Amino acid sequence: MTDRSIYDLPRWLLAIGPLLVLGAIFGALYLTSPFGDLGSVDEASTADMLWMLTIIGAIAGIIPVLVGMLWFPFIRDLDPRYLHAFMALAAGVLVFIAVEMTEEVFEYSADAESTVLAATLAVVGVGGTFLVMYAASEWRQRKMADQQKSGLEIAYLVALALGLHSLGEGLGIGVAYVAGDASLVMLLVLAFVMHNVMEGPTIVAAVARDRAAPPLYHFVAMGTIAGGTVILGGWVGSFAQSTLLAILFYAIAIGAILQVLIEVAELIRFDAEAVFTRVNAATFSFGFVLMFFLEDVLTEVLLEGWLIPA
User: Which UniProt keywords apply (predicted)?
Assistant: First the structure.
């Protein structure tokens, strides 16, 4: 991504390139139906199950995040105020994810045998994660001699928060896989691919403000952190279908996102006089609405059988 020839490509190609790659992925999934035969899952060995869940998790998690990161050359050349707006859009994406997971926590808590234990796990998960990440951030800032905030560091924090969120996605895939529901597995993969592709620009928006582009391995590492936990969640979901475990995973992710939102706001404030401008408010709202469309509206369309027959 640091090769200047990439930045010399036409702006329109940098803008639509990731969409073309995403379309190719959708086409391959729809035409090949790789999860069409899960009838023998009960007879599969543990190693076979883990391997298939690894492949599914990589398709649903790591690949779309990396595809989304392909927007980095386009974002990097934006005017600073538009770059801030893009970061505000990223914040909108994160807020939607946090709201969505809060709903999941309430739903799982209602199904738990002990409501008190479920509520305790949720509070400890959210509060504990937030405090730990906040303390780590404060310590990092005190250790930085020039007091400048590194976009790369915040990008890693965003990737970590999204990775914790992706554990919940993996849990859903793992449960559907063990149940042998091929249509639901395909639905979840398609929905998560659309959802996770937006996590790529969410991560690299902070990096785009730094003067020098980081080495390529940072992008691979951040993409793996953000999307690779879908694999881990799938493994856990296939063996430990626990309501309390799901609550804890979601609560940890919510706490992480709350801390990351503070970091993103401070990163914008470092470069600009105001965080809450009209442009930032508009892109923040757009990010929230876009994720609502991708996660809820489009998923309902899939459930009605537009892409997957009932």
Answer: Membrane, Transmembrane, Transmembrane helix
What is the average per-residue pLDDT within 73-100?
79
* Strands, E assignment, 146-222: none
Of 145, 151, 163, 152, nearest to 226 (Cα)?
163
**Spatial distance between the Cα atoms of 71 and 207, rounded to a whole number of angstroms:** 12
Could you tell me the two tokens for 215? 């080495």
Can you state the angle between helices 199-207 and 80-111, rounded to 10 degrees?
A: 140
Q: What does the buried/exposed string (b/e) look like for 226-235 if buried means 16 or more CB atoms within 10 Å of the residue's CB? A: bbbbbbbbbb
Q: Which residues contact 69 (CB under 8 A, 6 or more apart)?
A: 1, 200, 201, 203, 204, 219, 222, 223
Tracing tokens 């997971």 back to the chain, one arrives at 101
Total of domains in the chain:
1
Two tokens, residue 35: 């999860």
* Domain of 279, in residue numbers: 4-303
Identity of the amino acid at 68: G
Length of the chain: 310
User: Which residues, 6+ apart, have CB-to-CB distance to 87 below 8 Å?
Assistant: 205, 206, 209, 264, 267, 268
pTM of the predicted model over 0.90: no
309 domain residue, yes or no: no
Dig out the tokens for 182 from the structure: 């091929």
Residue 2 has pLDDT above 60, yes or no: no
Structure tokens at 176: 């559907």
Establish if 188 belongs to a structural domain: yes
Indicate whether 310 belongs to any domain: no
Residue 78 located in a structural domain: yes
Residue 194 is encoded by which pair of tokens?
A: 């659309």
Count the helix, strand and coil residues of the chain and give each as a percent rounded to the nearest 5: 80, 0, 20
- Identify which of 81, 95, 70, 61 has the alpha carbon closest to the alpha carbon of residue 224: 61
Q: What is the pLDDT of residues 174-186, one digit of tens each?
A: 877 876 767 667 7
